[in-house]
Amino acid sequence: MRDQKTVTIADDTVIQKLRKMGFPRQGRPLDNVVGEMLEDVCTNQALLQHPRFFAFVPSPASPLSWVGDVLTDAYNPHGGTWMESSAASCLEQETIQWLCQQAGYPQTAGGLFVSGGSIANLTALAAARHAMLTETEYSSGVAYLSEQAHFSILKALRIMGLTKEQIHMIPCDDSLRMDVLQLEQAILQDKKAGKKPFLVVATAGTTNTGCIDPLSRIADICQIHRLWFHVDGAYGASALVSKKYRHLLEDVARADSLVWDAHKWLFQTYACSTVLFRDRKHLAGFYSSDPEYLRDAAAENGEINYWEWGIELTRPARSLKLWLTLQTLGTDQISDMVTHGIDLAQQTESMLRNQPEWEVVTPAQLAIVNFRYAPQGLSPQQQDELNTAISQRMMEDGFACVLTTQLKGRTVLRICSIHPETTEDDIRHTIQRMDQYARALKKERVPNFS
Ligand SMILES: Cc1ncc(COP(=O)(O)O)c(C=O)c1O
């Protein structure tokens, strides 16, 4: 894996070949088809599980998750009803309970596995609105989120039918956390205008910078104004399992609902996310119904029919691979693996601070650092172009994948270091290469610049 390119994109020849294949009337030998998949499909992808894949939120899936996935797919339990998957549903309950304990939730808590953070956010927000508003109030309900919230929140609110006027985007402070003063002002103004504020979405670990919104103050505001407090921890909630860093997220316990992706930083293959509620009755209250053809599969005391807790009826038993991973590695090792990512981001930050002409734009927060090649004498625009070019050259080279994002109107490079096998040397060599590219690119593009 270490010697492979971090990103390979299929060239035109491969794409044309795949398009031309069509579907035969008579089948072909399995060996040939598998061979083609291995050669043309599996090789042409980004390796988000590569120790030097630092873009987006990487997916350093444990091979144990893969084993759990293969078993789950092979036996294919229907995770929608207890009757069809009693043991798997029981383990889903147990795994969810363990996650709820990590979040500091009380006994009333519960939740379920879903395919990803986007669906998890939608699942939570739709149930939240049902808990907070009557249907006649839906059209005047207002939801609040920060400018740095993940776009899946906006998507979820749109799917729920909220109009632009019902979605209140709150600006961030200098450290790109939700500005709570502006939040409170917006709520007061909206109330005065006769609207019905019902929801605040905070992020525990934003995708851009890894920062954590001021959870405690937002929780206070939600309490005072009786609003639902949702935390999107799709990426960052995993810090809860790190003994060293869990204190950063202690206020997550005050959230009414929490999203936590296991396919990000709990080392699972796709598609494995969770949505957790401090009081599980709100999930069942919104999603359960009573179709006559499912009555034979009605749940008894203590049993759960997960189709009554979320959007899907037919669903795979997504918890099994996480359960298998936790059983096999043990929670101490999982804690160390998460801790490693955060420690590494801090080391990345200090290496960058010692690098002339480079600037740290946002410090290590959880496992993310943003930075920029910013030689003096170049305009901010020229610097933006250089940083984009550095990331493109790195991608072509394939040694590491470091992509850009936009912060405060400028292009910055971003490293998310959650892979437990990434070493300090991996980071050092990546920075050295970026520096070489930066200097070469500066010469190419700004030849008269000394
Ligand atoms: C904070 C946050 N929320 C939600 C999502 C969406 O999760 P998914 O890609 O699993 O749908 C992401 C993805 O990166 C994220 O970082």
Please explain how this structure is put together.
This protein is of the alpha/beta class. It folds into 2 domains: 77-323, Type I PLP-dependent aspartate aminotransferase-like (Major domain) (Aspartate Aminotransferase, domain 2); 332-445, Aspartate Aminotransferase, domain 1, CATH 3.90.1150. 42% of the residues lie in helices and 14% in strands. It has 14 helices and 11 strands. The strands form 2 sheets. It has a 7-stranded mixed beta sheet, with helices on both faces. The chain has a 4-stranded antiparallel beta sheet with strand order 8-9-11-10. α13 packs across α14 (424-445). Bound molecules: pyridoxal-5'-phosphate. Pyridoxal-5'-phosphate (PLP) binds next to α5.
CATH hierarchy class name of the largest domain:
Alpha Beta
Q: Can you tell me the CATH superfamily of the largest domain?
A: Type I PLP-dependent aspartate aminotransferase-like (Major domain)
Mean pLDDT: 96
Which fold name fills CATH's third level, the topology of the largest domain?
A: Aspartate Aminotransferase, domain 2
Number of strands: 11
Report the total helices. 14
From the structure above, extract its key features.
450 residues, alpha/beta, Aspartate Aminotransferase, domain 2, Aspartate Aminotransferase, domain 1, 2 domains, 7-stranded mixed sheet, 4-stranded antiparallel sheet, 11 strands, globular, binds pyridoxal-5'-phosphate
